[in-house]
Structure formats: C-alpha cells, structure tokens
Amino acid sequence: MKWVLLFAIKCYWCVIPPRHRRSCLFSLSCSRYVYAEARRHGLLAGLRACWFRFRSCRPGYVLLITPDQQQHVRLANGHILPASQLNEAALRQAPHLHVCPEVHAL
C-alpha cells in the first residue's frame, strides 16, 4: 500500500512545477519528508508524517532564543523543534521570542 502514497507524491512532483508549489516552512520539503518516511517505515508512518506536516507547516511559528543562544522553533500547533529543521527564508521571517531560563522547557 505504501507504493500508492509514493506514486501519488511522484505524480505531484511531475505534474506541479516547483515554481507553482507553496514554499515549505521546513528545510526538507513536506513532500520529500513524507516520501522518505513512507519509503523507510511504511504507509502508516508516511500518513503520520503527512498529518504532522499538514498541521505544522503554516504561519504562526515563533523562533525561541534561549539564554545560551540556542534557537528552537515553536510551530503553530505547539510542537517545539530545533531551528535547524526550518529553511533559511522561514528563519529570517520568524518573529523572535527570548525565553527565560525558568520558562524554557524543551
């Protein structure tokens, strides 16, 4: 069954030119991430990855800067990820929030 999902993603890549696709928040595009997860771990993992990205890859994210200058991103759905997972353009546009040590619970 995972091949149906992989085929659908490949069709998306072939039919929709990159310039007409929505820009992804993450450094690894949503379709590439879902494709990799489905290929490696199967259909259910691919569908979970698709659902996570669908809920996460949207405006409303905030760049969190800890007192020791580490950067994390709080996504619109509340998940917190290392800033290295976002693409550079998204990081430049993200609103910044400096986090107090006692509030910082990553």
Blueprint (SSEs and pairs):
Elements: H1 2-15, H2 30-41, H3 43-56, E1 62-65, E2 71-74, E3 80-82, H4 88-93, E4 96-98
Parallel strand pairs: 1-4
Antiparallel strand pairs: 1-2, 2-3
Helix pairs in contact: 1-2, 2-3
- Describe the biggest sheet? 4 strands, mixed
Q: Estimate the helix proportion, in percent.
A: 40-55%
Order of helices and strands: HHHEEEHE
Principal-axes geometry comes out as elongated
Number of strands: 4
Strand order across the largest sheet: 3-2-1-4
Give the structural class: alpha+beta
Low-confidence segments: 102-106
Question: What percent strand?
Answer: 5-15%
> What is the straight-line distance between the termini?
36 Å
Task: Give average pLDDT, whole number.
Answer: 86
Count of separate DSSP helical elements: 4
Could you walk me through the main structural features you see in this protein, from its secondary elements to its overall organization?
This protein has helices spanning 2-15, 30-41, 43-56, 88-93; strands at 62-65, 71-74, 80-82, 96-98. It is an alpha+beta fold. It has a four-stranded mixed sheet, with no helix packed on it. Strand 1 (62-65) and strand 2 (71-74) form a beta hairpin. Helix 2 (30-41) packs antiparallel against helix 3 (43-56). The longest helix is centred in the N-terminal third of the chain and has 14 residues, at 2-15.
